[in-house]
Each structure stands twice: as structure tokens, then as C-alpha cells.
Amino acid sequence: MVTVTPAPGARSGSQKGFTLVELLVALMVTIAVVGGATLLAVQMQGSYQAQMDSASVQQDARYVLEEVTRYLRQAGNNPYRVTTTSCPAAGTPFLPIRINPDGDLLNDDVRIQMDANPTNGLIGGATGACGETEEDVTIFHDAANRTVSVTDSNGATRSLSDAAVTSLLFAYRDPSHNVTTNPANVAFIQTTVTVETRSRDLNQARTLQYTVASEVRVRSR
Length: 221
Hints:
By secondary structure, the protein is an alpha+beta fold. It is about 25% helix and about 25% strand. The longest helix has about 55 residues, at about 20-75. The termini are far apart.
């Protein structure tokens, strides 16, 4: 029988393991790898959320522009050629376009009238009822809530957007495309909508704004 004696200073198989230095190095490498992966995941999630937010507000801007354009295209529809209406009060003059209806000298609102729902010569409905909606409406920018809203002649208000609109501007032009402030001369209306993202863009470290615009010819001109 042969007996093997370990050399002085050598460790037996049952005594093998990591030294403290090796353990600390391994721990630091693990922390670095896990931390890097976590940071990358957070950045990717933030980038994804920013992209979704950006797409959402741009879609909101396009929807608002389409809805406002739809109203403007109907402005002045008056096949019965009425001159006054019963809503919101008896004797209300029929005007296709009213510029700056709130009188604050800002072109962020417009009031329009049309006979469309149904077409019966009653703009907004019968006296006292005003049940024919969307025939005498005011479109305006609600700066406090960052929305574009519509108020009907019966007083009902609804929002056309989420809380993302920072600006709504109307520009009025006559048949020669010159800027005008006379409602009777308005032939073209340009609508400009600006929206802002809720979250900050990671690359630019700020929120982003997007602007869309379109021009409509008033049908009564």
C-alpha cells in the first residue's frame, strides 16, 4: 500500500475554494453586469414610453384638426336663407363666422353657425328648446386644461382632445388670400394646432412639441 503525503503548503481537495479577493472580484463583476442590464432595460422602457407618448399626442393633434376642419367646412350652410335664429336667444343674428367670440383679442376661438342637424331652417332648434346640436358652436382652446373644446348653443361643452394641446390658432383670409379681421370677408380659415408630449425625450432631455395645420374654404364664400 502506497501512501501519498501532500506537499507542505498544498491544499487537499476538500479544502479547495475561493479566496476573499476572488469572491470580491466575482461579486463586483456580477453587480456591474446586472446593473448595466438593469440600466439598459430602464432606458429602453423610457424610450418606448416616450415614443408611445409622442405618437399619442401627434394622433391627438390630427384628430383635433380633422374635427375642427369638419365644423369649419359646414360653416354658413343656410339653404333656407334665415337671417335670425331662436337659439341661444330669440333674434340671434345668423353669421357663418364670428371671429374672437370671447373678445380677448386672441385668435384661439371661433364661433360658427350652420343649418345641418337637420336642415330645417332652425339654427340650433326651436325657441326655448335649442335641441338641434352642432348648429351654433364655439370652438376654443382651454389653456388651463390644455384641451380643444366645443360649446354648443345649449351650453353643453365637450372636449375634442386629451390634455396635450398647448396652442390653437385661427388665421382668417379673404378671397384674395389676404389676412382679414372682417367676418363678412372671411373666405379661408387656417387652423394650427400645437401639442406637447407629457414625458421628456431622453435624447433631448425635454418634452417635444408637434404642430399640424390645415386651411379650409368657407362654403358660404
